[in-house]
UniProtKB/TrEMBL annotation:
<dbReference type="Pfam" id="PF00171">
    <property type="entry name" value="Aldedh"/>
</dbReference>
<feature type="domain" description="Aldehyde dehydrogenase">
    <location>
        <begin position="13"/>
        <end position="476"/>
    </location>
</feature>
<dbReference type="InterPro" id="IPR016161">
    <property type="entry name" value="Ald_DH/histidinol_DH"/>
</dbReference>
<dbReference type="GO" id="GO:0016620">
    <property type="term" value="F:oxidoreductase activity, acting on the aldehyde or oxo group of donors, NAD or NADP as acceptor"/>
</dbReference>
<dbReference type="InterPro" id="IPR016160">
    <property type="entry name" value="Ald_DH_CS_CYS"/>
</dbReference>
<dbReference type="InterPro" id="IPR029510">
    <property type="entry name" value="Ald_DH_CS_GLU"/>
</dbReference>
<protein>
    <submittedName>
        <fullName>Aldehyde dehydrogenase family protein</fullName>
    </submittedName>
</protein>
<dbReference type="InterPro" id="IPR015590">
    <property type="entry name" value="Aldehyde_DH_dom"/>
</dbReference>
<comment type="similarity">
    <text>Belongs to the aldehyde dehydrogenase family.</text>
</comment>
<dbReference type="InterPro" id="IPR016162">
    <property type="entry name" value="Ald_DH_N"/>
</dbReference>
<keyword id="KW-0560">Oxidoreductase</keyword>
<dbReference type="InterPro" id="IPR016163">
    <property type="entry name" value="Ald_DH_C"/>
</dbReference>
<feature type="active site">
    <location>
        <position position="251"/>
    </location>
</feature>
Length: 482
């Protein structure tokens, strides 16, 4: 299937109004993959107008829930039909190993549409027991309206799907705006929505940079913004949304602690933490990044995880032997290198990694998996989100200090506990402030489980039935029966 490099507005593929374009690059080589239209303010206006027209059109507004469910199911079928092409496109544009694209990203996108297809017929109101005689009160769940769905570059297809599917299930219309670094699979998904029969204007797609995103978040015709990305940008979106009090949901940064108790199976903890830290080259907001290890086990843990990290095969995502691919961009390489320098300057011990590889990989955006030991809570590598393959190992002596130290952060997206003791697991899960706590496992996602964070990790929840709340308004209806 040919992927348009144009904007999808009102069911038509169009160039940017001013003809602007930008290039997207292969992170494994640094070479251009293709040229994509760059939306400007007039394109944003046109997309919002198209979405509003479609929202008000009875063909969508009054579509029976079962019919809407069939459309979402059809999108899932098409994702599976084009799974190989989607996976290869995701790998080429983002850099992730093809095994992650095929085994995680594409299947999760399809499952999101199937899960929310089931919700279409289950969005219900309720009858309230009001105390006013001769009066009936009931509630309706209605769509919010025109929704701007702004997605990041780390898992482009899956995150677009877990925003788009519930928004459509609730009867909203949308403007998808992918990150400029990784636009291609989102454009592909928009194309599949048209092929599935979703009416023109219900799904619009604008490619472009921060200016396009800013125009969407400030637009008075947008009723809701759903954003995944950095905490810094999330704060700007909140300020922009104040102009017309549009609804906002945010899934932002993270600095996930992983606690390794004295009784933990160290080999299992090493294997799980390595995967949890280096999935997608550490470019995951729930990546395990700071490890609190019992002081009697910390040397063993450090030695084993450093040895495992240094032996990981790096390479292009399309290579079947690759375990860790490149970072998404040169900018991200420079960010990771900056934090590595800070770690050394602030007194952490660099155990392994800490540099870009040479040889055949020198032209791409690769960075070695990096392990620091002797890290303290006040160091930048222990406090700030790096979004790269940097692991910081801290030790502890008293288990009572674990929750306060894990919570000593502005973030609260995810956390992990490695222990054989059920009491330890439950107590830490209850006292750590994070949206998701994983015990002896990787940071998995599932359509049925809510996803989001505390504090600077965002507002609201995505996935599960909680996403229905995010994309609906509750209306009360009063009936005088007297």
């Amino acid at each position: 299937m040919d992927i348009p490099s144009s904007l999808l507005i009102g069911g038509k593929w169009l160039p940017a109004a001013d003809g602007a374009e930008f290039k997207t690059y292969d992170p494994a080589t640094g070479t251009p993959l293709g040229t994509v239209a760059e939306a400007g303010p007039s394109d944003v206006d046109a997309a919002v107008d198209a979405a509003r027209t479609a929202f008000d059109d009875p063909a969508w507004r009054t579509m029976p829930p079962a019919a809407r469910a069939r459309l979402l199911w059809a999108v899932a079928d098409l994702i599976e039909k084009y799974a190989d092409e989607l996976a290869e496109l995701e790998t080429c544009d983002q850099g992730q190993p093809i095994g992650i694209a095929k085994g995680l990203n594409v299947p999760l996108a399809a499952e999101m549409f199937r899960y929310y297809a089931g919700w279409c017929t289950k969005i219900e109101g309720s009858v309230s027991a009001v105390s006013i005689p001769g009066t009936m009160h009931y509630t309706r769940r209605e769509p919010v309206g025109v929704c701007a769905l702004i997605t990041p570059w780390n898992l482009p297809l899956a995150i677009a799907a877990w925003k788009l599917a519930p928004a459509l299930a609730c009867g909203n219309t949308v403007i998808l705006k992918p990150a400029e670094q990784t636009p291609l699979t989102t454009v592909f998904l928009a194309r599949l929505c048209l092929e599935a029969g979703i009416p023109a204007g219900v799904v619009n797609c604008l490619t472009g940079g921060p200016e396009a995103g800013r125009a969407l978040t400030e637009h008075d015709g947008v009723d809701k913004v759903s954003f995944t990305g950095s905490t810094e940008v999330g704060k700007l979106i909140v300020a922009a949304a104040a102009r017309n009090l549009k609804r906002v949901s945010l899934e932002l940064g993270g600095k996930a602690p992983s606690i390794v108790a004295r009784d933990a199976d160290i080999d299992a903890a090493v294997a799980g933490n390595l995967q949890g830290a280096l999935l997608n080259s550490g470019q995951v907001c729930a990546a395990y990044t700071r490890f609190y290890v019992d002081h009697r086990r910390v040397d063993e843990f450090t030695e084993k995880i450093a040895a495992a990290a240094s032996g990981l095969p790096l390479g292009p995502g399309l290579s079947p032997d690759t375990v860790m691919g490149p970072l998404v961009s040169q900018e991200q390489v420079e960010r990771v290198a900056h934090y590595v320098r800070l770690g050394v300057e602030q007194g952490a011990e660099l155990v392994t990694g800490g540099a870009r590889p040479d040889g055949d990989l020198a032209g791409g955006y690769f960075f070695q998996p990096t392990v620091f030991s002797g890290v303290t809570d006040d160091m930048a590598i222990a406090r700030e989100e790096i979004f790269g393959p940097v692991l910081s190992i801290l030790s502890y002596e008293d288990p009572e200090e674990l929750a306060p130290r894990a919570n000593d952060t502005e973030y609260g997206l995810a956390a992990c506990v490695w222990t054989k003791d059920l009491t330890t697991a439950h107590n830490l899960a209850a006292t750590i402030r994070a949206g998701s706590v994983y015990v002896n496992m990787l940071p998995f996602l599932d359509p049925a489980a809510p996803w989001g964070g505390f504090g600077a990790s965002g507002w609201g929840r995505e996935m599960s039935g909680t996403a229905i709340d995010e994309f609906t308004e509750t209306k009360g209806v009063w009936i005088n029966l007297a």
